[in-house]
Prior knowledge:
The complex is a heterodimer. By secondary structure, chain A is an alpha/beta fold. Chain A is built from 13 helices and 17 strands. A six-stranded mixed sheet of chain A has the order 10-7-13-12-14-15, with helices on both faces. A three-stranded antiparallel sheet of chain A has the order 9-8-11, with no helix packed on it. Chain A has a two-stranded antiparallel ribbon with strand order 1-4. Chain A starts with a helix and ends in a 5-residue tail after the last helix. In chain B, the strands form two sheets. In chain B, strands 5-4-3-6-2-1-7-8 form an eight-stranded mixed sheet. In chain B, strands 9, 10, 11, 12, 13 and 14 form a six-stranded mixed sheet that branches. The longest helix of chain B has about 55 residues, at about 445-500. The radius of gyration of chain B is 30 Å and the shape is globular. The termini of chain B are far apart. At the A-B interface, α1 and α2 of A face α14 and α15 of B.
Amino acid sequence: MVMVMNDVTKKLNSLGEDILNDIEKGKNPGMEIPIRSLSNIIYNKKTKQLTLGNKKLKRSFFNVAHSKKFMQTLLVAAFCKSLVKENIHTSIRDMYYNLKRTFPGSKENTFDQQSESDPIIVDLEVMLNVLREQLRLTTDRKGIVAGNVVIRDRGDLIDWSKLGSGGWSIPSTVEEVEFKKVDADFVLVIEKNAGFERLHEDKFWKKHNCILIGTGGQAARGARLLIQRLSSEFGLPVYVFTDGDPYGWYIYSVIKSGSMSLAHVSDRISTPNAKFIGLTITDIFKFNLKKCTIKAREVDIKRAGELLKYEWFQKPEWQKEINLMIEKGVKAEIEALSHRGLKFMSQTYLPEKIKNKEFLP
Amino acid sequence: MSNDNNEKTAEYFATQQKEISVSQFFEKNKHLLGFDNPTKALLMIVKEAVDNSLDACEEAETVPNIKVVVKNSEGNNFRVSVTDNGPGIVKEQIPKIFGKLLYGSKFHHLKQSRGQQGIGISAAVLFCQLMTGKPAKIWSKTSNKKYTHYCELLIDSNRNEPDVIKEEDIENSVIKEHGTKIEMEIVGRYRRKQGVDDYLKQTSISNPFAKITYHSPDGKKTVFPRSVTKLPKPAKEIKPHPYGVEFGILDRMLKKTNAKTLVSFLTKEFSSVGSKGAREICKLAKLKKSASPSSLKRAEIKKLLLAMQKVKIQRPPLDCISPIGEEEFKKSLKKEYPEAEFVTAITREPAVYRGTPFQIEVGLAYGIDGRDDKSAEILRFANRVPLMYQAGAGAILEAVKKTDWKRYGLQQPAGSIPLGPLIIAIHMASSWVPFISESKEAIAPYPNIVKEIKLAIQDAGRKLSSFLSGKRRLGEQKRRLQAFERYATEVAYALSELTEKNRKEIENKIIELIKERTKLRKDGDGNE
C-alpha cells in the first residue's frame, strides 16, 4: 500500500517531462485532470466505495482561462518535488505562503488566497494518483487514539497505552507510521471527543482489548487512513459510534465508503468493512431514552431524505432507521446514554451490542 | 380733454419722428448683436478684425500671417490690434471700409464668405467708439507705396459717415511688405474658455493655411502654425436659385436688373434657369414673357414668386463651395490635438437646401487628454468661422444627438452627446448659411442639413469604430501576451525543478513558443 518515495518523484518528473515535450514540439502545453464534480462520482457496489469516473479536463497554458491555473499547478508540483527530495513535510498553509509572490512589474500574485492553492493539491493527487501525504503536505492534527499498540513515528517508539489521559493525537500523515505491536480484537471509532474521554477514563480499550479512536466530528484524512490501515493490515473489525442523526450517520458512511469531495482517494483511505454500532433511532426506544431526544429540525429531515436516496444507503436496515427518524421526528446524541448512568455506555450499551453483534451494515 | 387729444395728433407725432441712421439703430440695439455681454464684446471685436484680415488675404491669394494682440489697457478696457499681410488698402478707401456701415462688396452677393455672419468691421469700430469714446487706429501699406498710411477715425453716427481725425504717412511702421493693422479699444472681459483663446484655436483648425500669432492679456504668446501651405480653391460667386429667393429679394432684383424682359431677367439673374424654364415660369404666373421687370406690381411679383417655386428647375451648380478638405481638416486637428490617437475627417459631396448649395464636413479626434469620462466636445463651424455661442441649439447639435454613437463603440446617454475623449468638429460651407437668430451662432435645423450632417457623422463614425475595435483587440492581445510572458518565468522555474533541466533554456523555449502562438492568433483574428 505505501508507495515508494521514488515512485512519487518519478510521477512528478514525468509530469514535467510531458509538458516540456509539448513545448519542444510547438504544441499547446497542457495536462489532463480527472473531473471531481458530482457528475463524475460513481458508487462501486463491489468495493462499496465512491470512486471517480473517467471524465477529464484539459488544463493548458495557451487557454486564457487556464493559463494561470496551469502555472499554479506546476508551481505546487515543483514545491512537492522539493519536499520529497528533501524528505520534509509542510502544511498546506505554509506551502501557500511559500509560493506566494508578486510578478515583477505588476500587481498580480502567483496566488492571492490559500483557497487557490488548496484545490490544486487535490488536482495533483487525482492527476498523479498519489496521496497528499505522499506529496509531503500536512493539515492540522485531528483525532485521538489509545490502545495496546506500539508504533514507530519518525524514529520514535510510541506506546498508545502509555499516554496517560491524553492519547496520541493523529497526524495528518500516517502513511509512514510503522506498527511495531498491535494487540487488539477490534477498533472502536467514536465521533465525539467527550465520548472518547469517557471511554478512555473508563479504560474501555483495556477491558475490551480494542483500539479506541476519537475523530472529533467528521474524520480527517489522517484518522481515516489510520482506520483503513488497522483494518486492512491487521484484519481488525471496525465499529463506528456516532450521534443518532443524519450527520452522524454520514460520518460513518465517509469512513466506510469515502466522501464525495475525496472520491479519488476512496480506495486508499476508506474502510469498506466498517460497521455501524450506534446510535440508532431503535436504540432510543429500546433503552428508553425518549426523554433525552432532540426534536428533529427541518434541515435534519431534509438531510435524512438525501441519505435515503444515496446509493450506498440502499440497505433495508438503513432505510428502516432513516424512515423511522423521519416518522418520529427525533434524533439523539451519544451523551443521551448518560441518562441511564455515566458508565452505562462503557459498561452496558457498547459491550452488549458487540456481544450480540447488533450492527448496521 | 379735447385739448389734450388735439396735442397728440398724427401731426404732432410727425414732428417728433426723425429718420434714424443705420448707425443710430445699431447704437440703440447693440444687445441684438451680443454686445451686452462683456466677454462676447471683446471676442466680437477680435473676430471681426480677424475675419476681415483672412478674407483680405484670401482675396489677394496671399497665405495669411496674422498677429493678434489683446492688452488690458486700463480698468475694463482692452486694446485689440490685428495685423495682417494682406494687400493693404488704398488711402482713399480706408475711411469708407472702416468708417461707414454696410459698405463693402459682400452684402449683395451669394458667395461663401466669412463676413456674411458678422456685423462688419465698421460696426466694430462704431461699438468701440460708443463704449470707450476712442477712435480706431489704422495702418495700411500697399506693395507699390513706400510709406505706410496711418489714420485715426470715428464714425459720425447721425450721418453714417467716417470722420477722420488724424492722418499721416509714416516711414517706419509695423508693416513690412504690405498689409493692414487695425487697433481698437473696447470695454470687455477676458476669459479663456469661449473667449478669444478658444476662438483663435478653432479658427486655426478651420483655416489650416493661416498662421496666427496671439499675445493674450496675461502676456502669453501663442503661435497657431499653419498645417498646410496652399490656399483653398476660392469660392465662386453664384446667382440665386429660384427656389431660394424671398419676396423682398425678388422685388429688389426686379427693380435693379438691366434686363428688358421677364424671360431675360429670369435667365440672366438666376442660376439653373434656361429659356425653356423661364417661359414656363411666365406661363404659370400668367405674365407676359416680354413684360418689363421693373414694371411688375406687388400681386404680380407674388404670382411670379409662386410660379418660380413650382416649376421644375435643375439644382444650382455645386462647385461654388470651398470646403476645408479632408486632408487639411485632418492635419489641422492633428496639429491642435497632438495627443490624439486617432484623427479622421469626412467631406461630403455638396447638397442643396432650398435652392442653396452647401457642403458638410466632419472631423473626429479621439484620445484627447483629460476628457475620458466627459461628454465629447463639439466644435461648430460655418464658412470656416467658429460658432462660439448657442452651443445648445442648432442643426449640428441635433445631428450629433440623433446619431447612434454606440454603434461606433462609444457610450451615449439616451438622446445625448456621446461620452469619451473625443472632439467632434463639424463644418458647414454654403453660399448662404441659415442661422437660427440674428446673433448667428447656431445653424437652422433644416431637415436636409441635419440629414447631411448625420450622414457625414456616420461616415466618420465608421472609421472611428474600426479604430476603436482594433484598439480593443490589440489591448486584449497585449494583455494576453503579457500574462503568458509573466507566467513563463514561473512555469520555467517549476519545469526545471520537476525535470532537473536548465531553467534558462526552458524559459527561452517558452518565450519562443509564446511569440509563435500569438503571431498565429493575430493572423486568425485578421480573418474574422
